[in-house]
User: Fold this.
Amino acid sequence: MTQQARVFDQLLQIAAILQKDMAQSFEGTGLTGARTHLLWELAALGPSPQNALAAALDVSARNVTGLVDALEAGGYVSRAPHPTDRRISVVSLTGLGEATMARMQREHQMLSEGLVDGLKEVERIEGDLDELIRRLQIVLTPETFENGGTAASRPEAAS
Amino acid sequence: MTQQARVFDQLLQIAAILQKDMAQSFEGTGLTGARTHLLWELAALGPSPQNALAAALDVSARNVTGLVDALEAGGYVSRAPHPTDRRISVVSLTGLGEATMARMQREHQMLSEGLVDGLKEVERIEGDLDELIRRLQIVLTPETFENGGTAASRPEAAS
DNA sequence: TATTGTTATACTCTATAACTATA
DNA sequence: TATAGTTATAGAGTATAACAATA
Assistant:
C-alpha cells in the first residue's frame, strides 16, 4: 500500500498552481495577496474596526495598520472615526473598493463555473474532496506524528 | 448551472490548509518554506551551482544567494568551488542536510499513505484530481478571461 | 562580450514591544 | 486598568540594477 499514494502530491500541486496564479495576479494594481484578502474580509464583514480585521485575518494589529495604509493610499478603503469610541478607526470600502470586489466576485464565479463546466459526477467529486479535506486536517494535526507538520507540505507547493 | 460549483472553493480550502501547515512547520529549526524548497531541489538535483538552483526554484540569483547564506549558516548546505569554472560555487547538502531531507521524505511518505489509508476508489479519485488539475491550468490561463487571474484565487487561500 | 555570484537598494508580509490616546 | 491603533525595530522572501571576477 505504499507506492501508489499520488493523492497527496496532487493536492500539493493544486496548492502550488493556485498560489502561483494568485501571486502573478496583482501586477501594477497596487494590490497584493494580503491586501486583497483584507478586501474580501471587509466585503464580508462590512465597515469594521481594524481590530476586527486583525481577528478575521488572524494577523497582528500592526500588520493591519500597514495593509490599511497601503489600501488607503491606493484608494480602495477609507478610515473614519468611530461615532462613540474615539480610539477606533472604522475601515470601509470606497467606491473603487466596492467596484473592485464586485469584479473579483464576478470573476471568481466565472472561474468556479468554468472549472466544472461539463464535468461528470460533480457532486460525487465534491464529496470526495470533502473527505480529503477532512482527512488532510487529521493527518496534518501535529499530534498525529512526532513531526511538526513540516515534511507534510513539501515546499514544492510553495513556489 | 450556477450555484453548485463548490469545487473551486474546496480546492482553495485545500491550498489554504497545506500552506498553513507548512508555515507552522518551521519553528525554531532555522528552516522556512523557501529554504526547505531549496533543500528539496538540491536533494533532487544533487550538488548544483546557485545558477541551477535559481532556475529550478524560478527565483532570482540574488534570492538564492540569501537562501544559501541562511542554509549554510544553519549547517544544512555548504559551498565549494567548481573544479574548472571559478565563477561557480557548487552547493551541496551537508550531513545534517542529508539527514534532514531523509527525515522529511520519510514523513512525507507517511502522510501520503495516511491520507488515503482505507479510502475507497483511490485510483478513481486520482483520475478526478488529474482532471481538475488539468482544468485548473486552463481556467487560470490569463487569456481565458480578461482578468489577470487574481479573482481566481481569492486570498482566503492565502492565510 | 557573456556569465556567476555578490553588494546595494527597495518593497511586502509578518511579528513583538513600547507608547499614545482613549475608555 | 484595559483597549485600539500607532511608531520602532526586526526577520524573511522577493526583485532589479550595478559590479567584480572569471570565461
